[in-house]
Amino acid sequence: MKHDDALLHVRGAARFVRDIPVPQRTLYAAPVPSPVAHGKISRLDTSAAAAHEGVVAVFTARDIPGQNQIGNIIQDETLLAAEDVDYAGQPLALIVAESREAARAARSLIELEIESLPPVFDPRQAWAQGEIIGVPRTFALGDVDREWSRCHVVVSGRADSGGQEHIYLETQTALAIPRDDGGLKVYSATQAPTVVQRIVARVLGLAMHQVEVEVPRLGGAFGGKEDQATAWAALAALAAFRLGRPVKLTLSRQEDVRWTGKRHPYSSDYKIGLTEQGKILAYEVTFYQNAGASADLSPAILERTLFHTTNSYFIPHVRATAVSCRTHLPPFTAFRGFGGPQAMFVMEAAITQSAAALGVPAAKIQRENLLRQGDELPYGMRLQSDSPIRCWDELDRRHDLAACRARVAAFNRDHALTKKGLAVMPVCFGISFTTTYLNQAASLVHVYTDGSVGVSTAAVEMGQGVHRKIRRVAARTLGVDLDRIRMESTNTTRVANTSPTAASSGADLNGHATRLACLQIVERLKQAVAADRGFPADDIGIENEAVVRAGRPIGLSWEQLISWAYARRIPLSAYAGYATPGIHFDKSKEKGHPFAYHAVGIAVVEATVDGLRGIPRIDSVRIVHDVGQSLDPATDRGQIEGGLMQGIGWMTCEELVYSPEGKILTDSMATYKVPDIGATPEVTVSFLDDAPQPAGILGAKTVGEPPLMYGIGAYFAILDALRAFRPELPLIFSAPLTAEKTFRALWP
Ligand code: LUZ
Ligand code: MOS
User: How far, in Å, from the CA of 226 to the mean position of ligand 1?
Assistant: First the structure.
């Protein structure tokens, strides 16, 4: 129970945006969704809804004072549909009423006529019709075309992975409060306060300094609030601005699942060539990303897919092409891994098929081709460490992969009705926003006169424990106890121009900024003590809440130091920015050094399939993960276990099902199956020893997204068990591998 808010969370006392006590005269807003996936609005009459009891106003696109445009990377998304409707669930109007119930009840009174147009839901079909976002991109290394003829085996195939709903505990929420100067304060459950600020200002025609955005904490996000908290904040702000009253907007779970974006489904074609010994010589892949109806973050996600084409492997000849396809589904968005998992799934599919063709275990090919220090990745960067091999060997040392394989084979010989399967899953994930300029953060540190400390950064606490890590950085840098440090809310007036808390970079970027701010304060204090006592400043330090000279206390405690310094009029606050050094990427060549470092680890997954009922179960997952010098081991372990389970869910049970008209059918927790405690395998997590990471903060490596991808091993472990029943079973690479699919594979 090491999370900063653990006690608040278990008592239900933590305040999320929807728990903030609302001001007097607060109104409630309910969006009106499009019932169809594609069409043209021919009539939208709001008068009957506006006349409903309790309704104060109904807004449509015409009521937007600024731009009706919420697109972030590409400006292709309206806040309220003006003419065209591009997905079922798209907001057409906003009803504002004295109560949530009244706003919702009035929805059925909206009179709507939409001329239906044929929708497209399949990315390959969209591609064939030329419906793409941006341009296709290709990363290449070596010369695949020449290499095929040198390969002993060449296999090719298709791999599909489905979308994934975030199921953050807190649904999308915003509270907008008008200010007396015509501006607004917006509480938003967002990972990206500055994006909300910029887009609210754009929609209302205001300057950014007229919009203050505050985030207390989030009840989970997983990427689902990186870009998609914005629309709801902008709708609440629109109503608050027009009516001069506070407006709250909260989606129900079902609304949230129906209307908001999810992980991108991908459909991919691959071709892979190897030597007789299992050395991969060439790999070619085309990724068709299902982007949904507008760009959202799809171009950045597509790019991260390309960066992770070869995952943890060195392949000398690679050509990877990716295209973002526009379909009539709610725009798909960021989700932990951000396009990386989709690429890694295809790579593992290709290796699994190669192993079958060569008649060797997949693990042999995986080990043979692991990245080594200095190996070149298809985007020109070289791996800086030997972590992939060190993690593999550590996993082998701890868990003996050959013995695991033998144990599984023995079990399968002895059991006719149940079979086990095994899969190793290495992960090598690039750390930094691939959009280089986003790799910046800032921190504002106040030391109060009693010696307590308040820290504001750009980081949003969403359960991942970033606040605890930043507190540790501040405490270590100032030389004081952790209890002295408090993290403040994330607010655009205290720290401006914030990047989203995303890309596993929150602790690194904001930790570095906090360290630099704390160092400024320490330096001022040291100089003042040196001048007063006549010591050299370099001899002075602050350790364990006391001033030391050459490591020995001089009889001045932290509290005494601070009140003394305040009386001497020494500023006790500091602000610092941080920008990741040394990263760059040239899109015209698709080469560069986009990442500060790579997060690396490996897992071995064991599964059992019940052959009569077709039910798969993940028995155990053993992980060796390189966290560098962990800033907070309990937090890191929690992230690794949680990420793993989210990945297992994506690969095995979380299935999005749509009607032929493009309406999501799996729109509640009753029909969308996430893994529960009963599905949790035995998980062993070991940290790689002696692996400090200089580019991370205080030697630590980030841990946010990478462990999700261990879950991919679950797919291949189940597939391995299925092949133990039926060795002739055709290899299917279509995630999730649900119980229905395993049943049908065994009982065709
Ligand atoms: N967001 C983003 C991300 O804008 N750029 C990224 O590279 C990224 N990576 C992971 C998660 N979110
Ligand atoms: Mo994210 S997928 O918001 O790092």
Answer: 9
